[in-house]
Amino acid sequence: MPPVIDDTVFALASGAGRAAVAVLRLSGPGTAAIVRALAGALPAPRQASLRRLRHPHSAEVLDQALVLWFPGPRSYTGEDSAELHLHGGPAVIAGVAEALVAAGARPAEPGEFTRRAFVHGRLDLTAAEGIADLIAAETAAQRRQALRQAEGALATLYGGWAARITALLARQEAFIEFEDEDLPEGLDDAVAGAAAALRAEIASHLADAHRGERLREGLLVAILGAPNAGKSSLLNALAGREAAIVSARAGTTRDVVEVRLDLAGVPVTLADTAGLREAEDEIEVEGIRRARRRAEEADLVLAVFAADQAPDAGTLDWVRPGTLVVVNKRDLALAPATIGGLAPIPVSAVTGEGLNALRARLAEEATARAGLGAEATLTRPRHRAALTEAAGWLAEIAVAPLPELRAEALRAALRAIGRITGRVGVEAVLDLVFGEFCIGK
Ligand SMILES: Nc1nc2c(ncn2[C@@H]2O[C@H](COP(=O)(O)OP(=O)(O)OP(=O)(O)O)[C@@H](O)[C@H]2O)c(=O)[nH]1
Ligand SMILES: [K+]
Ligand SMILES: [Mg+2]
């Protein structure tokens, strides 16, 4: 049984600040009474009605608003709820908010509407996360991934796995319960086989190279190189604006300067860093420390060399398989054929030569590391942790010597998956044991 929610909450559902329209949303059992207190009679369900809103105590008219009434359970939260579409001025919003409090509502906590929807079974935790991601999505690929999750792709996948484990558990329990009786031959082996097959499915879902998580969080790309290689010039050229200071003086950049890029739908944080060298100045030393740390955290390192300089040892250290090697200042000299065993991309931040090729290569690298697959992908470390745990328990079944231990492992696997969706259905097993499974008694 879900906990009983007896209060009514409201919040500004549209963005803060002056706008043509502001939407206040209300949800909870007191919604109908509160709407009546401000707007008079309740409008017909799900139809916009123009109403004067009055303060319930002073009867002062606060606004002319569109009022929508969504009786539960067919509402977003599953509760009685309403929307007030106000004129979007701060004083209007404040006045109506105060009137709502006077009528018995309270301001909602962050995420409370979606939380209520979860409590009322309108969505599972993964769909709730999908909605949060949809609101935060910056690129088209992020939006598609979030929408897929909000529409229940992960809920369906994980719910299906949970149902299969529940059925296996039912059989395993029956095997324990009715051991002396006429059970189908090989029942125990069939459970082990099905558990192994499911474990393999979960393992292949986990072997996604973190693409969904990376798409959700964005990729970190760090630009590294010697002072004056043209790192800041490249950052500016890729960002299309003067985000970082460029100068002929070596050691210009100290702090990490970040820009956000949309590379083929993958959000990328591109970081410009201090030039690597043996520095004396304590501020520059700190800048170089930050540069190295950023490169260690990065999903991709862009090692920048200048065509008119021999490759420096400090940057060469970072040239490894997977590093993107760039030779800048191509307008001054030819780029070498290889640096540290990798073929560099020749560019000139000044003339623009090679920048399209660099952008294309970056987009290729980004989509190789993050992005939408044909199948629904997990998007959060908590999904990964719980699925890894579930797969571990399913692996136990192959080696568990006793039926009771197998049942215990199945129960643990079910709980782990139940944590992802927020629906821990161990109770459901009891019904299945004596219901679905036909023992003939
Ligand atoms: N000719 C030429 N000059 C360039 C190019 N890119 C950058 N420069 C110049 O090289 C100098 C250094 O550029 P920056 O972008 O400040 O170099 P940086 O690598 O960020 O330097 P630090 O921040 O000091 O590490 C500036 O005078 C730029 O105008 C290029 O492609 N060709
Ligand atoms: K510089
Ligand atoms: Mg710089």
Automatic annotation (TrEMBL):
Q: Sorted alphabetically, which keywords does the UniProt record give?
A: Cytoplasm, GTP-binding, Hydrolase, Magnesium, Metal-binding, Nucleotide-binding, Potassium, tRNA processing
Q: Which cofactors, if any, are listed as required? A: K(+)
Cellular localization per UniProt: Cytoplasm
Q: What is its main location?
A: cytoplasm
User: What SUPFAM superfamilies is this protein classified in?
Assistant: P-loop containing nucleoside triphosphate hydrolases (SSF52540)
Family matches, as CDD domains: trmE, TrmE_N
Q: Where does GTP bind?
A: 228-233, 247-253, 272-275
EC number per UniProt: 3.6.-.-
User: Which sites bind (6S)-5-formyl-5,6,7,8-tetrahydrofolate?
Assistant: 25, 83, 122, 441
Q: Which domain of life does the UniProt lineage start with? A: Bacteria
What does the cofactor section's free text say about binding? Binds 1 potassium ion per subunit.
**Job of this protein:** Exhibits a very high intrinsic GTPase hydrolysis rate. Involved in the addition of a carboxymethylaminomethyl (cmnm) group at the wobble position (U34) of certain tRNAs, forming tRNA-cmnm(5)s(2)U34.
Record note on quaternary structure? Homodimer. Heterotetramer of two MnmE and two MnmG subunits.
Protein name according to UniProt: tRNA modification GTPase MnmE
